[in-house]
Amino acid sequence: MVPLPEMIFTVMKILSQLLISLLSIFIIYLSVKRRNFSKGTEKLIPSPPKLPFIGNIHQISSLYHQSLYSLSLKYGSLMLLHFGEVPWLIVSSSDMACAIMRTRDLTFATRPSAVVSEILRFGDVAFEPYGEDWRQLKKIFTIHLMSTKKIASYKTIREEEVSNLIAKISHHASKSRGDPIELSKVLFSFMINVICRVVSGKFIMEERRYDMIREVVEENFNLFGRFSIGDLFPSLSWLEGLIGLSRRARINRNKWDLLFEEVIQAHIQRGENNERQNNFVDILLSLKNDPTINFDLTMDQMKGQLADAFAAGIDTTYITIDWAMSELIKNPKAMKKLQEEVRGIVKHGDMVRSEDLNRMSYLKVVIKETLRLHPPVPLLLPRESMEECEINGFTIPKGTKVLINAWAIAREAKSWEVPEEFMPERFIGSQVDYKGTDFQLIPFGAGRRICPGLLFATATAELAVANLIHHFDWELPHGMTREEFNMGESPGFSVHRKDDLRLVVKNVHTSY
Fold it and tell me: For residue 73, is it within any domain?
């Protein structure tokens, strides 16, 4: 029999050798992974120190865009981070964004796979992988819903819903005795009304469907704002069904499915009864049966087009209006200047119409400055390289996942003077715009994957803000100073105010 001390020694020796072997394998593995991101060059992509297994997760707060910005100030505008086991390339400057979305736009034109997006994706423009299906879906969405001609045709809908918004606020002011109005909630409802009418007509605005839209849109952005365990740790993807987000995503997917099925079937029935209204759902149904488009539009792809319109159209536009009003109440000089412009162009008590907006130059720069400081989606939808390429001297392997921090780029010192301040005047006389050609201002992205709804969003936001400023004077709730007014952000895929916007309506300038 082997003596116990000798047995312990033998076991310890074996374990130590095993540990050394495992450590050696781990070091080789790390060096190979690191070399893959610098193959053909001596330059290594700057990267913060990371911990085993969790990578750089411990350095990222719930406000992803802010913590990534802070890291970029130390490690550079092209930075390699590991979210769990998965490496991500983080882009934080206009130059690097231009390299990704213009110089190498085709290379980075696809979307990476993710647990939530794979479940929620019907076959939509936003998350569809790059290819012929995506090109056809984008063409349908752009031409039949978001073209310049189509957006102009929604003029009556926008103006009627803004009129309803003003009437609702006026009614509150007449009954409130100085109590603040929950403006964030009112604006969210306003955008639901606009999108419902544009996409499906008033049919979808029945109360039960209306509440469901609110619920599924909010849950969509909650889900997209989180990493699931399968995204962070592919080796633990078997745990996804137990502790991941997939169950919540499937529940929300089923709610979307039920809603869209009802809407589509109702439009089919109306078409059979010769009650077709030629809204977006009716157009999609006609395209599905049109042999001339040379594309077999599936029912799921129709639902994907509707999901894009509802999810993106409602939330991001409402956020822009909400932040614009927040910045104006925080900055009374800007508020006064905008009111003087609007009230100097449109008579007392009259509605601001769409044709008035082009004469309101200060309104335009207020919206631009709002989009600069508060891009609705601060981390643009992720991209993935479809082939190996070189960016700024670094070799980027095929399959690299990329996040572009539009929030950080809008604070880049070389592009913006005092970037943290709300200064609409910085855009007076400037040609910089948000339409994807000026990479220092990319709230809607750029290149092939630019948001196709940017013109609709800005037209709606301008009309709403102009009328809110024209018809009412606004104050903070009683006892609150501008210094106390919270401008904090709430975590998520799209970034709302941390606190809902509550304002007191004063001096109603309207005939309602």
Answer: yes
Q: For 374, which DSSP code?
A: -
Q: How many folded domains does the chain comprise?
A: 1
pLDDT tens digits for 324-364? 999 999 999 999 999 999 999 999 889 999 999 999 999 99
- Domain extent at residue 305: 34-506
The DSSP bridge pattern shows strands 401-404 and 86-91 to be parallel
CATH code of the domain covering residue 403: 1.10.630.10
Q: What is the pLDDT of residue 4?
A: 33
Q: How far apart, in whole angstroms, are the C-alpha atoms of residue 392 and residue 377?
A: 26
Asked, for residue 57, whether it belongs to a domain, the answer is yes
How would you label 323-348 residue by residue, b for 16+ Cβ within 10 Å and e otherwise? Answer: bbbbbbbebeebbebbbebbeeebee
Maximum C-alpha span of the chain: 105
Calculate the CA dihedral of residues 212, 218, 222, 224 and round it to 10 degrees: 90
CA distances from 164 to 236, 312, 395 (A): 51, 22, 55
What is the predicted pLDDT for the residue at 362? 98
pLDDT, tens only, 423-464: 999 999 999 999 999 999 999 999 999 999 999 999 999 999
Burial class of 20 by CB neighbour count within 10 A (0 to 12, 13 to 18, 19+): exposed
Q: What does DSSP assign to residue 393?
A: T
